[in-house]
Specification:
With 32 residues, this protein is mainly α. Helix content is 88%, strand content 0%. The longest helix is centred in the middle third of the chain and has 28 residues.
Length: 32
Amino acid sequence: MTVNTYKNLLADILWLEGFSFLNGELMRLSSP
């Protein structure tokens, strides 16, 4: 694996982690 591929993979993982975290926060805030 090249460094660039590794960076892209890491970025994808971080993006998914951040997205799922934000989604969870929105669900928590919207629920009474």
